[in-house]
Each structure stands twice: as structure tokens, then as C-alpha cells.
Amino acid sequence: MMRTVRLYGSLAERFGASFRLDVRSLAEACRALGAQLPGFRQAIEDGRFRVVCGKSRRSKRALHLDKDLITFGLPEGDLHIVPVIRARKSGMSVGKIIVGTLIAVASFWIPGGQFLLGLGISLALQGVSSLLSPKKKTEKQKKSYMFQGADNVSEQGIPVPLIYGRAMVNPITISAGVTTANSNGLPTA
User: What are the TM regions of this chain, as residue ranges (predicted)?
Assistant: First the structure.
């Protein structure tokens, strides 16, 4: 089915605003554009996008596609690929500093607004401390299939809960032993 694929934002500036393609799904459209436009595939892999199928990207009847519908056969209508703007943590920290400073300064002109001074100072200091603190490296959690039952994905060094009375909680394995066995059931020599 012939449809118009419309690109927005940095994609439109770099590759062009619209293309007329014979595609059934979003995956086919991206594959076709990636074959024709050098660098398109890398731009799609590096960015975050919102994809809408319909006459207009703001239409109430438009179909908003998520990652589960990439290979889904689409209904009639244009395909809109819109970049999503992401905020960075350092930007949030600078924003806290600016807003906190503005609140603290505004407290001098608002009658009875002395309580805002403490709020503004604490918000600005929170932004400064988040800029100065080191970023924690996040590791992917490794799924363990060693134990059966509830998920047991605890890390080394976490506190062990001490429970008084009765409680229903997920267990945390503190220590475990592993023995080997032959798969055919015969004892090992």
C-alpha cells in the first residue's frame, strides 16, 4: 500500500520531510529509508522517536505505535516519525539551581514570604550537590536460575532484613551450596 512517511525535527532537516513508499509496516518503512538514505539507520538507532499512523500526527483517531507494533500491518494513513526530546540529569540540576535562586530572591519582595527563602536555598543546594556528586554506574541485573521460587536477584552487600512476628516476603539467599551430579544418574567416579 502506498503511503507517505513524514519525518520531523532533526530527521527532516537531515534526510528530508516526506517520502512516498509502498510499505505495510513501520519496520518496512525504516528498512526502505535506511536503504535509500545513508546514515538513516544509525540516526534511528541512536535516537528516541514517537511514531503515529494516521492522516495527522495530532489526530484523535491516529494509531500511536509502540515497540510491539513495529512489524504490525498498518491501516491506511501517513506514517509520522517524530523525535522525542530527552532531558539530561545535569540539565535538571542546573534547573534546580536557577529555580531555587529565583524563589530565594522572590522571597524578599513577597510580604511574609520568609519561608520561601529556606525553600529556595535548599532547592539550589540540592541542584549543586547533584552536580558535584559522582554518577553511580548502573549494571544490568543478572538473572539467576540457580534457585527456584520467587525471584532472587539480590546483590552482594545488601542489608539482610530482620523480621519479628509473621510476614510474607520474598526470601534473600544468604548462603548456598552447590553439588554436582551426573546427568544419567550414575555416581561420578
Answer: 93-110
- The pTM assigned to this predicted structure is 0.46
Tens digit of pLDDT for each residue in 123-165? Answer: 888 888 887 776 666 666 555 555 555 555 566 667 777 788 8
Side-by-side strand order, sheet with 78-83: 18-22, 2-7, 78-83, 49-54, 63-65
Which range of residues forms the domain containing residue 102?
89-131
Contacts of 43 (CB under 8 A, 6+ apart): 10, 11, 14, 15
Query: Which of 83, 113, 141 is a domain's end point?
Result: 83
Per DSSP, 25 falls in state S
Q: How many angstroms from the chain centroid is the CA of residue 160?
A: 30
